[in-house]
# Entry
Amino acid sequence: MNDTHTRPDRGERFHARKALGQHFLHDTRVLQRIAALAAPVAGSGVYEIGPGTGTLTAHLLEHDGNLRAIEKDRRCVALLRDRFGERLDLIEGDATRVNWADQLAEADLGPAPVVVGNLPYNVAMPILFGLLGSAVRPHRIVVMLQREVAERLLAAPGSSAYGQPSVKVQMVADVHFGLRVGRGAFTPPPRVDSVVVVIDPLAAPRFPVADIDRFGRLVAAGFGQRRKMLVNALSHGLSLDPKPIRAALVELGLDERIRGEALSVERWADLCRPLDALLVDARLPRRVRRIR
# Structure
């Protein structure tokens, strides 16, 4: 397959870089629908992650002129500056390494900024959790993800897709299906299907917990060994005595043999509260830190 993208303003051929997970979106109808989902609230602007050659950027600028973007590929940075000039506040950098509170504050995007982007699979979760954990959070996040990743964010308890990302994101945000995007909408076509999801961060965690980071450690350990019963997964993953874990499950009316995927987000919060004191010094081993 040809891996080049045609610049709409000059007809130049632009090669996608596989190492950066680049797949340039060219379908006008899809671009319009994403821009509509990311339409800014009056008085606020938009932050685009990975604008690439600027196909979505052009549609976003039609909605609002207050737009900042971050792009890692220097070739794209030069192209974007040439194409949009001062209309686009462009940062050359890596979206997985920035301080999102600083970025959103410095960009002066108003009280309800919207973040939008097409996120490669290997960086999607770090970027999403960076945004959701930021001291300055966006009003809305509209992201294109690999279908399997999107399904994890949208999954319900008991389903095979339900896991650590499902619980952590749904604890702090409302997650909605946006639209499916066929492989033919990209150049070059990816080998996976894509889905746009809309994430609306909540003002506070959906259910009360003493500390959201400790809640996150509990959830990560609970899904670190999915085939194990929750008691064993937590005791091994956090080096905790299994007795208080069993006691907490019994107190909540839950089966001691239950597995993590059977607990709703609310039940995870319920379980976190009686175990919170034990989680203060608990640390995850490296093997279960990855978001699955």
Observations:
- The chain has two domains: 4-201, 212-288.
- Residues 212-288 form a domain with the Helicase, Ruva Protein; domain 3 fold (CATH 1.10.8.100).
- The CA atoms of residues 207 and 271 lie 11 Å apart.
- Confidence is low (pLDDT under 50) at residues 1-12.
